[in-house]
Each structure stands twice: as structure tokens, then as C-alpha cells.
Specification:
It is an enzyme of class 1 (oxidoreductase). This protein is of the alpha/beta class. The chain is 29% helix and 17% strand. Helix 1 packs across helix 9 and helix 3 crosses helix 5. It is elongated, with a radius of gyration of 21 Å. The protein binds glyoxylic acid. Glyoxylic acid (GLV) binds next to loops.
């Protein structure tokens, strides 16, 4: 197979470094050029323009620059070629850091101490062992499992929920619709790392938050979402915080991004906001993986980390 050209189609992300690194091995065409170009065999994308990929007659594979691929499926004429998601140690490490940082901050009362410091209050609330807190991770893929194993090593009790059962040593796992309520009932800190699909959209709603365990040393349940904003209902989270269903939340993702200035989440005293920054896609780490995969395909080898189109992730 000959060495195909790459179309780089990124929305809202500067293509400079991606282009430079891909150009080390391949000819790169930058969107909006390249539509219908028969010499293009790969596309590297983030929120590509609809109908762009279907115009490429010789497309062999599409590479997402992010771990999530929902942005690719938003295209109504997506051609039937393999879609490859990013799986990289560096991205997994970033996500693990974010999850562990937020879990520890809620566990060690970061919010309370920050407000006490502002008021110069010298007061030590009771401490409780990590083992008394159970962290429930929704989504037990590469990212969820990596975070789970570090949380286990810190002594937390860890639960996991996924679409189909994914056993993991030391983790109490639950699966599917039938497992959801038992999972929530056993969870104090809910960590959301699910892919966004038609099945998971809006899954983090008031009814679900209501099921979280509240009788714990934390003084309430906590939500951490580092998956996708449209998994959650922002208004339901506000309602849950206001009536005490939730004690605190750390949100990296939102229904609308950037989070509108008018959103009450920005200034809510119980919410910690980051701008979809939990795990940044770093081209220095990710481009070599993509280039390796393109070369492997041309040698007749199989692509890795191909998305299951029916499942949508
Ligand atoms: C970021 O949101 C990603 O999908 O990697």
C-alpha cells in the first residue's frame, strides 16, 4: 500500500504543532483544503465539519485526537471506515491525576479549608480514613481502570459501573441498567468517565444523583465529571446542590462549552470548575502513535483501538 496523505481537520484547536509533527513522516493537508482529494487516505480530526470525510474517496481511517469520539459521530454522513481513538499513557496519566486530585480534595475538605483560610479561621474538622469512603467510577475503560488502581492504592473503597461487566481486582463492579441503582447506593464520590453515546446522554440527572450514598463521613455525596458535558444535566446538578442531594461537585465538562458566563455553576460555592482541561491531548505524545498506526496499516497489519461503531465508543 502506498504512503497516503493526511487531512488535518481540527475545530477550536490550533493545528500548528499537530501539522508539524505529522509532516515529519507524511504530507499533510490542512482543512478547508483537501475536500474530495483522492490522495488523502487518513484524517486526523477534532469536531470535523459535517460531510467533509464522506467527500474523500480513498479514506482508510479516521484518527480522533481525543479519547472521546462523540465529536466524530456528530457527522451525519460519516463514511464506513475504521475510527481510531486515542489511547496513550500520557493522556491516561493526566486523567488519573485529575481524578485523584479531585477525589483527595473533596475527601480532605479542600473547599472548607479554602473558605476557612479566607476568613482566617483556625479549625480542624474530624478526619476520616479513605477506607470509609467509596469512590464509584462510571466507565471502566482505560481511563477508569487507571484511576481506580491509584485510588485503591490510596486505600479508598472503589466501585465500578460499565455497560457490560468489566471485572477488576479489588473493585466492586456493577453492570448495565440493573446494576446502576445498587452501584449508586454504594457510592459516596461519583466519578464520571463514560463515553457520550445516545444511551449515556443525560445519564447524570437528578434521579441518579438522588441514589448516591449520603450517610458517610464526608457529610454528603460528591460528583466529579471529567467525561463529557452532555452526560449531565447542569440544571439537575444545581438543584441537587441546592437541596443537599449533593454536597459538592468538581466539573471539567458542561452541557455547553465554553461554560456560558451566565451559568450559575461558575460562582456556586460548592462547585469546582475547570475548562475541559482534565486530560489534554498533547501532539508530542499522540502523533507518533498515529503515525505508527498508519504505517502498520500500510504494511497490512491491523489498527488498534478501533471504535465499536455500534456501541459508539
Ligand atoms: C477530551 O475531551 C478527549 O476526548 O480526549
Amino acid at each position: 500500500m502506498e504512503k497516503g496523505r493526511v487531512l488535518l481537520a481540527l475545530t477550536g484547536i490550533h493545528p500548528g504543532r499537530w501539522r508539524e509533527l505529522l509532516s515529519g513522516e507524511r504530507e499533510v493537508v490542512l482543512e478547508p483544503d483537501g475536500a474530495s482529494d483522492p490522495s488523502i487516505t487518513y484524517a486526523v480530526v477534532w469536531k470535523q465539519r459535517p460531510n467533509l470525510l464522506s467527500s474523500l474517496p480513498n479514506l482508510r481511517a479516521v484518527f480522533s485526537i481525543g479519547a472521546g469520539v462523540d465529536h466524530i459521530f456528530a457527522d451525519p454522513t460519516l463514511p464506513d471506515v475504521p475510527i481510531v481513538k486515542v489511547v496513550a499513557d500520557n493522556l491516561t496519566q493526566y486523567m488519573t491525576e485529575y481524578v485523584v486530585w479531585r477525589v483527595l480534595d473533596h475527601h480532605r475538605q479542600g473547599l472548607l479549608y479554602r473558605s476557612q483560610q479566607q476568613k482566617k479561621i483556625w479549625h480542624e474538622p474530624p478526619q476520616r480514613p479513605a477506607g470509609d469512603i467509596s469512590v464509584g467510577i462510571m466507565g471502566l475503560g482505560t481511563l477508569g481502570r487507571a484511576a481506580a488502581s491509584v485510588l485503591l492504592s490510596l486505600g479508598f473503597a472503589v466501585n465500578g459501573w460499565s455497560r457490560s461487566d468489566k471485572p477488576m481486582k479489588g473493585v466492586s463492579t456493577y453492570a448495565g441498567e440493573a446494576g446502576l441503582i445498587p452501584f449508586l447506593n454504594a457510592t459516596d464520590i461519583l466519578v464520571v468517565l463514560l463515553p457520550l453515546t445516545p444511551q449515556t446522554q443525560g445519564i447524570i440527572n437528578y434521579g441518579v444523583l438522588k441514589e448516591l450514598r449520603k450517610r458517610n463521613g464526608l457529610g454528603g455525596s460528591v460528583l466529579i465529571n471529567a467525561g463529557r458535558g452532555r452526560l449531565q444535566k447542569d440544571a439537575d446538578i444545581l438543584r441537587a446542590l441546592e437541596d443537599g442531594t449533593l454536597k459538592e461537585a468538581s466539573l471539567d465538562v458542561f452541557e455547553v462549552e465554553p461554560l456560558p458566563k451566565t451559568s450559575r455553576l461558575w460562582s456556586h460555592p460548592k462547585v469546582f470548575v475547570t475548562p475541559h482541561a482534565a486530560a489534554t491531548s498533547d501532539p508530542v505524545h499522540l502523533v507518533p502513535i498515529m503515525l505508527r498506526q498508519m504505517a502498520a496499516l500500510e504494511r497490512g497489519e491491523k489498527l488498534e483501538n478501533v471504535v465499536d461503531r455500534k456501541a459508539g465508543y
